[in-house]
């Protein structure tokens, strides 16, 4: 019989479970009481989730009014500042950050193209990129640590193919090697920071990235855990 | 809470009526009562035997006699019966539930004859999604599906379950056109751009600069999808639809629809009829269950015509016959260490052969559609490996010289639900059977169009008309009137 069980590969006999509520005492009672509210709890959780999504959507909304009135540079700058990021216009050497009184500066520079955006740690997602894609002179883009940035969003960066020189997608939890593969559109890229991006075999991905972007310096993805310094090839990529 | 628990316990222990198992006796028991021992022993033996039996389906239920169908039985009545539990069928079921006015207002039953999906077209496909079609409706459906897949967790996320990751690879489709088809390709790209798809036209020089591994000898122009194109994992999408639909209360059962009872038997005129019952035959058994239904949706994919040929449908009502037939298509997998790298798109060659990257370790998937006269036999899913050696490989190796040395890894076959009439899906109400809706014949695009198709059919059922996408041109009328709506971009 035991052999038969082994051959059939069954998951064993069903465990005998004591009837609920008889042997658990207080804990069973508490769980049972909570169990009565199961659907209510579920609905409240669904509401919470919907509220979170709504908030994310409104923070990433496309500011078409700003763009129509002041042009794409102001729209992108205002969007970035409202996300808590930094903006640098052409010819400037300091970043405009939200804590400084930014509004007059941004409007004064409305005809100057935006060359650098720092959106690290912002709630930027695919829809939020609507505000950025009209930019024509963007050279530096820092998207590190954006929790909602995914592979779909990385696929939209091809619009910066002629200008973008530095890109960071470090520590974005939802970015994978599938999204990194779309960066081959960025022909002018000189520095790419992919530290802390979760990929199955960092060494191989780094080699493929370097092969795909021969002029680009790939930072932060090494053999092993992908966080240390380059240590040479003591471990072949899996 | 503790006090409360304590208060409960004595009441339960001291329930009136005494212990039911207490034997009735008059004298002190013997030290060994053979009959009592026997009873206990038999109980133990029974338990041991029960434990030895394999635990089937429902863990707690233990064992069921052989021949009993696994899984839930079909209910006796349902509002909507969806025939076919592929990705289209489950998408229709999900959207019916998502669009219904009142929670649990509608009982939806999905019937799938192959619960392991061993022959299902959904999971045997290459999993591509593209915007580059030549028909406006197809482009719109693709754009809807892409935005659905992008926000899949908003649509199909189930509370307390991990987020869905369909492993989308946004690499784009690259269509190559020889000189004689260049003008046509440009016209379709213009249409695609009108619909909002991001498609770039590339000259052979640009192509060579972008993809140096390619031989662009006879290419006049190429169109390259920049956004929302690529491939994903079909099995994850199918399961996501299934779990979400079931969490919304859709019933499912394994069985095969092999018969209908229509109102044609009651009436004299045979112009139109309604389906009253669907006979669902249990797998591996002669048993069947008639299910009373208000609406039937035929989403049986390649076997949609077979369903229509089932017993009970008068032949007059099935005219014109659905031009949908299964066609076997092979997908080959190979390894080529120095093949196209990270930037490899989903390439459609001028000859019709296609390939894509599979993972990052130098593996590729590809195939091609055979010419009309060489269609393989569709009775099974066996693979003709010579087809790769003689047809596919030479074409691909000419396009990508690195493929001259490659190592085949494996192959499988799947069915296209091929619409021989005009290679487009047939969608909407059946012309003669009033409560039958069709959603089949997508000729290899069913997976990528499933979210849009499900929504369109559900709108037709719930609201009576198309709301989000106008797909009236894909209806059955073109079959009746004999006006094909051609799609050029069938791979």
Automatic annotation (TrEMBL), chain A:
Domain of life: Eukaryota
Cited function: Required for the assembly of the mitochondrial NADH:ubiquinone oxidoreductase complex (complex I). Involved in the assembly of the distal region of complex I.
Family: Belongs to the ATP synthase subunit s family.
Known partners and oligomeric status: Interacts with incompletely assembled mitochondrial NADH:ubiquinone oxidoreductase complex (complex I).
Name of the protein: Distal membrane-arm assembly complex protein 2
Organism in which the protein naturally occurs: Grus japonensis (Japanese crane)
From TrEMBL, chain B:
InterPro entries in UniProt: FAD-dep_OxRdtase, FAD/NAD-bd_sf
This protein's record includes keyword Transmembrane: no
Domain FAD dependent oxidoreductase: 79-460
Record's keyword terms, sorted: Oxidoreductase
Region (Disordered): 1-26, 56-76
Pfam families tied to this protein: DAO
The protein's role, per its UniProt record: Required for the assembly of the mitochondrial membrane respiratory chain NADH dehydrogenase (Complex I). Involved in mid-late stages of complex I assembly.
Stated name of the protein: FAD-dependent oxidoreductase domain-containing protein 1
Annotated organism of origin: Grus japonensis
């Amino acid at each position: 019989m035991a052999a038969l069980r082994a051959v059939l590969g069954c998951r064993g006999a069903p465990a005998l479970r004591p009837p609920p509520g008889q042997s658990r005492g207080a804990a069973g009672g508490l769980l049972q009481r909570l169990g009565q509210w199961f659907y209510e709890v579920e609905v409240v959780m669904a509401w919470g989730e919907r509220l979170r999504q709504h908030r994310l959507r409104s923070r990433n909304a496309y500011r078409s009014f700003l763009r129509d009135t002041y042009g794409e540079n102001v729209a992108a700058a205002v969007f970035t500042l409202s996300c808590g990021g930094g903006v640098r216009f052409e010819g400037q050497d300091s970043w405009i950050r939200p804590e400084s009184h930014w509004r007059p500066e941004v409007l004064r520079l409305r005809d100057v193209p935006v060359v650098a955006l720092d959106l690290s740690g912002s709630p930027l997602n695919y829809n939020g990129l609507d505000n950025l894609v009209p930019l024509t002179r963007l050279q530096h883009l820092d998207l590190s640590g954006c929790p909602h940035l995914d592979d779909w969003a990385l696929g939209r960066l091809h619009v910066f193919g002629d200008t973008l020189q530095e890109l960071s997608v470090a520590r974005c939890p939802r970015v994978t090697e599938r999204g990194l593969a779309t960066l081959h559109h960025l022909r002018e890229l000189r520095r790419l920071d992919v530290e802390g991006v979760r990929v199955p075999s960092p060494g191989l991905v780094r080699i493929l990235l370097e092969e795909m972007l021969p002029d680009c310096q790939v930072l932060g993805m090494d053999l092993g855990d992908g966080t240390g310094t380059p240590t040479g090839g003591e471990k072949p990529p899996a | 809470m503790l006090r409360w628990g304590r208060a409960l316990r004595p009441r339960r222990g001291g329930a009136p009526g005494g212990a039911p198992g207490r034997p009735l006796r008059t004298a002190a028991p013997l030290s060994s009562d053979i009959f009592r021992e026997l009873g206990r022993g038999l109980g133990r033996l029974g338990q041991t035997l029960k434990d030895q039996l394999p635990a089937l389906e429902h863990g707690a239920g233990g064992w069921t006699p052989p021949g009993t169908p696994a899984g839930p039985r079909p209910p006796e009545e349902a509002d909507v019966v969806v025939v076919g539990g592929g990705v289209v069928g489950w998408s229709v079921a999900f959207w019916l539930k998502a669009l219904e006015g009142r929670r649990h207002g509608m009982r939806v039953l999905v019937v799938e004859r192959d619960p392991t999906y061993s022959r299902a077209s959904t999971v045997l496909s290459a999993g591509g999604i593209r915007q580059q079609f030549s028909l406006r409706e197809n482009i719109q459906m693709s754009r809807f599906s892409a935005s659905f897949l992008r926000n899949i967790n908003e649509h199909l996320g189930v509370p307390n379950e991990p987020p869905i990751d369909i492993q989308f690879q946004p690499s784009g489709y690259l269509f190559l056109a020889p000189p004689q088809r260049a003008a046509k390709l440009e016209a379709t790209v213009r249409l695609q751009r009108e619909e909002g798809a991001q498609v770039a036209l590339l000259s052979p020089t640009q192509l060579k600069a972008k993809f140096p591994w390619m031989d662009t000898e006879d290419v006049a122009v190429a169109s390259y999808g920049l956004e929302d194109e690529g491939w994903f994992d079909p099995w994850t999408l199918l399961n996501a639809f299934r779990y979400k639909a079931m969490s919304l209360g859709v019933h499912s059962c394994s069985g095969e629809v092999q018969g209908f009872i229509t109102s044609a038997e009651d009436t004299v005129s045979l112009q139109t009829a309604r389906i009253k019952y669907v006979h669902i035959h249990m797998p591996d058994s002669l048993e069947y269950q008639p299910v009373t239904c208000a609406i039937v949706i035929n989403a049986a994919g390649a076997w949609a015509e077979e369903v229509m040929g089932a017993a009970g449908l008068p032949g007059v009502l099935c005219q014109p016959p659905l031009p949908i037939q299964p066609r076997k298509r092979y997908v080959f997998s190979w390894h080529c260490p120095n093949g196209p790298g990270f930037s490899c798109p989903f390439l459609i060659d001028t000859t019709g052969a296609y390939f894509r990257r599979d993972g990052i370790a130098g593996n590729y998937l590809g195939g091609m559609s055979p010419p009309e006269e060489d269609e393989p036999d569709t009775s099974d899913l066996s693979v003709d490996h010579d087809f790769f050696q003689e047809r596919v490989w030479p074409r691909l190796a000419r396009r990508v010289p690195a493929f001259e040395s490659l190592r085949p890894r494996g192959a499988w076959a799947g069915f296209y639900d091929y619409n021989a009439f005009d290679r487009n899906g047939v969608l909407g109400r059946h012309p003669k059977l009033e409560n039958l809706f069709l959603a089949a014949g997508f000729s290899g695009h069913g997976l990528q169009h499933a979210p849009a198709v499900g929504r369109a059919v559900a709108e037709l059922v719930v609201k009576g008309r198309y709301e989000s996408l106008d797909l009236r041109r894909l209806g059955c009328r073109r079959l009746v009137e004999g006006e094909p709506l051609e799609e050029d971009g069938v791979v």
